[in-house]
Design goal:
The structure is a homodimer. The first copy, chain A, is α/β, with parallel strands linked by helices. The first copy, chain A, is built from eleven helices and 13 strands.
């Protein structure tokens, strides 16, 4: 484990740049006492936003939030970083990984905090597409008229349709009971299926066939060198005509030019994206011109009490750290 | 049962005013052969739209569609009417009921055709509200800015929230597995709970308490003299502050002036309506001015292949009729 630094009576210094109310920072402060909380002036809110370098980090034993990678590596006492998001692109480089391992730094993320909200956001996209909500919420069609018949006739039952989950981690697992309750036909994709997933899985060799038969493809891939532009022109061309693409993972896993083309040609019926590249996608980006491309601004993981749950999640891991138990959600060993 | 008229070799005449493609009418024609299909010029599409009187109905043994109530009652040979919708307001009067019973007319509806689509439409509303889709689909918030933090912070997890289903028929039963997969706390309301519903039920005496504790109230009541304006000012005042109201039943069960007031005051967080009174709701109706009132134009039951399933549903019942078996979805005995 290499937790280190948690022996005996030593007072630990916990650096936290999570943006939180005073009440919640008090919750954190009391939760770690008698250990000490260090809070900088400028708080981070997102792994995707830049944060200023803060000298306090250099005094910390533990960091919780989104500090700059270079500052993390140069902090002489730092033994553990808990990233306050699910994604950890900023730290997911070979160089960072090697240096972290060399200095005995444990890195965990907060993915479980956001799993359920992400799963529910993905479901909201599936349902909104099936029921054509963007169109029907603005329609004043009268019972029996052509527009009404068209809206009803183009709505679909999710029941019995097929869905391919790209990436089979915790978000996919949270989606599964709901998809099964809908009696959808669920397949998962991961590079190397383990065989213990409990649903039909495909690996790289079978992906093309799975894409050709899925009514819905939900991209939940994390961003890393292997996943960048994973969904490219060849990928979209293999998807079933009229099928729907969803992305609640990371924007960089999609070749947006290829996606635009597939939507323009109506090879794909629609796309629903919570993540794009860049974020926010500029107002004049070609994807924004398409009536069949629906975009939310990277809010899938959000929910009331999110910051409270985030802090409680850290405190649970902090107790594990003090007791030299294995940390939860570890992403770098 | 009083099916009557189906003995021996007699050729039955089946009147159908359902709007369908030639292919689907052929499916119906072949399905009932050697019995005969009578199709009028003007086809009905909705129980809510007026249809012309058609003299062909007067020759029919069986009617399938939405004929005028007076024409049904005056048709001398008619033994069975299958209404091509879930609602049957047009026929749900004491006078029609008495005359139908007196002349030995069986009346069935097509509710099971629309149950799953209605259930999925209701779920689409719950998810769209939880994820604030009307707002987030038009937002270009940047990670970390105030609008972004607000959107994320006002999104909610359905998981763990409570939902009250007003009316516990087939649509509610279809919703149940999905609500349970979401780990929502589900309660049902019906005037007289039977005790075999499999979920906690309340009757009239306990409705106020149930309204006071539900995060979501889904109205699936049919329209009849008892249900008209069931959701009135007193009803909304009993709902929990900040809760959300949904209607996928019938517009007339809601006092829209009272709903408007509850939404204006933000006593209710939002309303999602697939049905209104009248339909479509005029463009200048006060409910349309509210950003927290979301309206679809009575499309909840619609889905691709709806007319095919409707006809197949009739054909199944037609075989029951020929074999003098009890008819499915009977609504008047």
């Amino acid at each position: 484990m290499g937790n280190g630094g948690c022996s005996g009576m030593e007072t630990l210094r916990v650096f936290c740049d999570v943006q939180a109310s005073d009440d919640l920072l008090d919750l954190l402060r009391c939760g770690i006492a008698p250990h000490v909380l260090l809070t900088p002036q400028g708080a981070a809110t997102s792994v995707l936003a830049d944060v200023p370098t803060d000298p306090l980090l250099q005094e910390a034993d533990i960091a919780f939030g989104q500090p700059q990678a270079a500052d993390v590596l140069s902090a002489p006492r730092l033994k553990w970083l808990q990233v306050s998001s699910a994604g950890y692109t900023r730290y997911d480089t070979k160089d960072f990984r090697n240096q972290a391992v060399a200095k005995g730094l444990a890195v965990t993320n907060s993915s479980h905090v956001y799993d359920q909200a992400c799963a529910e956001h993905a479901l909201s996209f599936l349902f909104a597409q099936a029921r054509l909500l963007p169109e029907s919420l603005t329609s004043m069609a009268a019972n029996g008229d052509d527009e009404w018949l068209s809206l009803r006739g183009r709505s679909v039952l999710l029941q019995g349709q097929s869905v391919l989950l790209l990436g089979y981690g915790e978000i996919a697992k949270r989606m599964l009971p709901m998809l099964q309750a809908l009696q959808m036909d669920v397949t998962g994709y991961r590079r190397s299926p383990r065989g213990d997933e409990g649903i039909p899985m495909v690996g790289a060799a079978d992906l093309s066939a799975a894409l050709a038969s899925a009514d819905h493809v939900v991209n939940i891939l994390p961003e890393n060198p292997d996943s960048r532009s994973f969904c490219d022109a060849a990928f979209f061309s293999k998807m079933k005509p009229g099928s729907v693409f969803y992305n609640i993972g990371r924007g960089a896993t999609v070749d947006q030019t290829a996606l635009h083309e597939a939507l323009m040609q109506r090879h794909l019926q629609a796309a629903w994206l919570d993540v794009t590249s860049p974020e926010p996608l500029p107002g004049d980006h070609p994807l924004r011109e398409l009536s069949n491309c629906h975009i939310t601004p990277h809010v899938a993981g959000g929910f009331t009490l999110e910051t409270r749950v985030l802090i409680e999640h850290f405190l649970k891991n902090f107790r594990r750290y003090l007791e030299a138990q294995p940390l939860a959600n570890r992403v770098i060993y």
